[in-house]
Specification:
With 136 residues, the protein is mostly helical. The protein has helices spanning 2-8, 11-19, 26-33, 37-49, 72-108, 114-127, 129-132, and strands at 53-58, 65-70. 68% of the residues lie in helices and 9% in strands. It has a two-stranded antiparallel sheet. Helix 2 crosses helix 4, helix 3 (26-33) packs across helix 4 and helix 5 (72-108) runs antiparallel to helix 6 (114-127).
Length: 136
């Protein structure tokens, strides 16, 4: 199960998936992301393996071309993951704020030294850096 989550939630797979919420060709995806067609093909193969996307044929006057589009299952999965990550980050941010408040109270009550306060504050800031940063 973790292997599937790791595969489907890699930044590259998420970027590819987001581009094919509307039908798109591998060439367009490669161009949009600035990666090789071979890399795109690997991502598409993985996304298709787990049912997140499906292959469609684009019929044109010159030659048929392949395009991919998100499935309902894919939209469901990425919607749930997005919702979960938003809640998780919100909870982590709340925990960071509470930890810093508790630390401030300990310092104000004289329970810890300035050096201990500084050390703990740096550790909390480091441990919770992702939760309070602007990075996705």
């Amino acid at each position: 199960m973790l292997e599937v989550l790791h595969t489907l939630t890699s930044p590259s797979k998420v970027n590819v998936f987001n581009l094919i919420r509307e039908p798109s060709t591998p060439e367009n995806i490669a161009s949009e992301l600035g990666i090789t067609r071979q890399a795109v093909d690997k991502h598409l193969k993985d996304l298709q393996k787990y049912g997140a996307i499906r292959k469609m044929w684009l019929l044109s006057s010159d030659r048929p071309r392949i395009q991919y589009v998100a499935t309902e299952l894919g939209l469901y999965f990425y919607g749930k993951i997005g919702s979960f990550m938003s809640s998780y980050r919100s909870r982590g941010k709340k925990d960071a704020i509470e930890s810093l408040k508790d630390l401030d109270v300990s310092m104000l009550n004289g329970d810890i030294s300035v050096d201990e306060y500084t050390s703990r504050k740096e550790r909390i800031s480091r441990d919770y850096s992702w939760f309070v940063s602007d990075d996705e």
